[in-house]
Design brief:
- With 614 residues, the protein is of the alpha/beta class.
- The chain contains 20 helices and 27 strands.
- The strands form 5 sheets. The chain has an 8-stranded antiparallel sheet, with helices on one face. Strands 5-6-7-8-12-13-14 form a 7-stranded antiparallel sheet. A 5-stranded parallel sheet has the order 19-18-20-21-22, sandwiched between helices.
- Helix 4 (126-141) packs across helix 5 and helix 10 (307-324) packs antiparallel against helix 17 (482-496).
- The structure holds 2-deoxy-2-amino glucitol-6-phosphate.
């Protein structure tokens, strides 16, 4: 996903812009660029393929002075990663510079018209089309930049978060947003612009989340103006961001991913804070209190998500069906949105997303909403697009997740799903008070048990060395831990680039067992639960074919531990809470294999932290 930063104020813009781009690197990108208006009123645009550090090297002999600028990290959508396609893009008259996160769906049609009007294009991007269109409107309509942007955006179909500089108006930045995130930080006589709050919080915690179909007129020394495309003034709420710089740094860990794995005990405690009263022995979710009737009246839950969040949704299915006795369907958002799904007014959709910006999940929930469903969001990024489209929901409060591979957000999502299932089951009377209280008490012990699992980090790092040269792995689990097997396989795949598949353990007999031989490591989640005997049989089937078995077992296990080649012992917990414990060793396994292989753990190739394009 592209990253946008902007600055206008009394400080030198360049250092602020570069630091901001570094804070957005986690989003994944392939080139970077900056546009500045220097003290002589000259507009300089500098861009480079590769990392932000490559850009900084490239401009080391350039004039990057000035108090106003915009900068960008590009994750290629239209046009390959190269310097010409990197942002910012110039207008033909050299007056305007633009940066953009999103996709202009009808750019080819606009480009064709502009070429007929004599425009020449330097790049293959949709973004360059947009800046040329703005110039075309400015010239032909003889209007201000604000009006030109409004008129141009009315012709655009697609998603955008843009920032535009005009060298003839060096005291202003024009920004606009539709579907792609954009945040404005309000400082003392200075403004900051970014795709999310991270590049902003060290300067100011006062922010405005720009709404869809609005533009921001940001002028040094003036009050910020927010207008819609028909020039109607909006008065958005200024919010206070809770992020701290410490949360953004690695805190002594070699990678954000490892930091975030180790943060999980505290994160899960934070996630439950104010939502569980151990004294009263009850779960209190404000969303359930406020929308009790609608949620209790659900004839069906439909969970929409992608990737790791989809795996959390599978666990949500087990939780909601077993505790609330309501049917749950878990859908890939990307499939749901194009399938013309059947939705009834009694459907409750649960949209799960760490970033709150995943395009497919956002589009799918909008479709379900349009068809009459009630929308419940489970997100991490406060103020992001998905929570703003839901009827209600619960934030997971695990703090910013920087590593592209999701870890603490997954356990946070599973925790909120557990609380939601408990709260609804209690209201519906579909859970006994004994079971309800037992789960609440055990939830209180989970952070401590997670801490215990993390003590095995070094042992898991040693174990992971044997996989460094593996080419394929299989992950097996049953019941609540079947989605954990999927998640463990995804962790390994996305950061070590080793192929891995997660399967329900019993599914092996229906084909995948043909893959098993002495070269095939098989990771099995075999903790003590109602399906333990079944998984022992599955392990024996694998062993009979000389598969190398790495087993996650409950401490004190005496059966699987004798069958497996490698054993990771875990603290026991309730079956429905097992994913909160068994996921952690698989996160560590994936992490350490990737480190042994020398991979870019926090920014794996081809991946973005949030996929805001389809
Ligand atoms: C998980 O490690 C990946 N980063 C990816 O699958 C991610 O979970 C997916 O893109 C969904 O993102 P979201 O939770 O922000 O919507």
């Amino acid at each position: 996903m592209c990253g946008i930063v902007g600055y206008i104020g009394n400080r030198e813009a360049f250092p602020i812009l570069m630091k901001g781009l570094h804070r957005l690197e986690y989003r994944g990108y392939d080139s970077a660029g900056v546009a500045l208006i220097n003290s002589n009123g000259e507009l300089g645009v500098y861009k480079a393929k590769g990392k932000v550090s490559d850009l900084e090297t490239f401009v080391s002999d350039k004039d990057v002075t000035g108090n106003i600028g915009i900068a960008h990290t590009r994750w290629a959508t239209h046009g390959e990663p190269c310097q010409e396609n990197a942002h910012p893009h110039y207008s033909s008259n050299g007056r305007l510079a633009i940066i953009h996160n999103g996709i202009i769906e009808n750019y080819m049609e606009i480009k064709k018209h502009l070429i007929e009007c004599g425009f020449i294009f330097r790049s293959d991007t949709d973004t360059e089309v947009l800046v040329q269109l703005i110039q075309y409107v400015q010239d032909t309509e003889n209007v201000s930049l604000v009006s030109a942007v409004q008129l141009a955006l009315k012709q655009v179909i697609g998603a955008y978060a843009i920032a535009v500089l005009d060298k003839e108006q060096p005291e202003q930045i024009i920004a606009a947003r539709k579907s792609s995130p954009l945040v404005i930080g309000i400082g003392d006589d200075e403004y900051f612009l970014a795709s999310d709050a991270m590049p902003i919080v060290e300067y100011t915690k006062r922010v405005i989340y720009v709404e869809d179909d609005t533009i921001a007129v940001i002028r040094k020394g003036d009050a910020l103006r927010i207008l819609d495309l028909n020039n109607v003034e909006h008065n958005p709420e200024v919010k206070h961001v809770e992020l701290s710089i410490g949360q953004l740094e690695k805190g002594g860990f070699p990678h954000f991913m490892l930091k975030e794995i180790f943060e999980q005990p505290q994160c899960i405690a934070n996630c439950m804070k104010g939502r569980i009263s151990q004294d009263l022995g009850e779960v209190k979710l404000s969303s359930v209190i406020d929308y009790k009737e609608r949620l209790l009246g659900a004839h069906r839950f439909i969970i929409l998500a992608c990737g790791t969040s989809w795996h959390a949704g599978l666990i949500g299915k087990y939780l909601l069906e077993s505790m609330c006795h309501v049917p749950v369907e878990v859908e890939y958002a990307s499939e749901f949105r194009y399938r013309d799904p059947v939705i009834t007014p009694n459907d409750v959709v649960i949209a799960i997303s760490q970033s709150g910006e995943t395009a497919d999940t956002l589009a799918a929930l909008k479709l379900a909403k349009k068809k009459g469903a009630f929308i419940y969001g489970i997100c991490n990024a406060v103020g992001s697009s998905i929570p703003r489209e839901t009827d209600t929901g619960s934030y997971i409060h695990v703090g910013p997740e920087i590593g592209v591979a999701s870890t603490k957000a997954f356990t946070g999502q599973v925790t909120v799903l557990t609380l939601l299932a408990l709260a609804l089951a209690k209201e519906k009377g579909t859970i006994s008070n004994v079971a309800y209280q037992k789960i609440i008490r055990e939830l209180d012990a989970i952070p401590e048990k997670m801490q215990e699992v993390l003590k095995q980090n070094d042992a898991i790092a040693d174990l992971s060395k044997i996989f460094t040269y593996a080419h394929n792995l299989i992950y097996l689990g049953r019941g609540y831990c079947y989605p954990v097997a999927l998640e463990g396989a995804l962790k390994l795949k996305e950061i070590s680039y080793i192929h891995a598949e997660g399967y329900p353990a019993a599914e092996m007999k229906h084909g995948p067992i043909a893959l098993i031989d002495a070269e095939m490591p098989v990771v099995v989640i075999a903790t003590h639960n109602t399906l333990y005997e079944k998984i022992v049989s599955n392990i024996q089937e694998v062993k009979a074919r000389k598969g190398k078995i790495i087993a996650l077992v409950t401490k004190g296990d005496t059966v699987v531990s004798k069958l497996a080649d490698h054993v990771i012992e875990l603290p026991s917990t309730l079956e429905c809470l097992d994913p909160l414990i068994t996921t952690i060793p698989l996160q560590l396994l994936g992490y350490h294999v990737a480190v042994h292989k020398g991979k870019d753990v926090d920014q794996p190739r081809n991946l973005a932290k949030s996929v805001t394009v389809e």
